[in-house]
Amino acid sequence: MTDLDRDNLIYDWNGVDAVEIPEGTVVEFDDETLRDGLQSPSVRDPELDEKIKLIHLMDELGIHTADVGLPGAGARARGHISTLCKEMTKLTITPNVACRTVVADIEPVVDLVQETGQPVEVCTFIGSSWIRQFAEGWDIAKLVELSTEAVAFCAKNDLPCMFVTEDTTRARPEHVRALFTAAIEAGAKRICICDTCGHSTPDGVRALVSFVAELVRGLGADVGIDWHGHRDRGLGLINALAAIEAGATRIHGTALGVGERAGNTEMDLLLVNLKMMGVVNNDLTKLAEYCRLASDSTGVPIPSNYSVFGQDAFETGTGVHAAAVIKAYKKGGAWLADRVYSGVPAGDFGLEQVIRVGPMSGRSNVAWVLEKNGVAVTDDAVQAVLELAKETPRLLSDAEVLAAARG
Question: Could you tell me the residue range of the domain that residue 374 belongs to?
Answer without folding.
Answer: 315-406
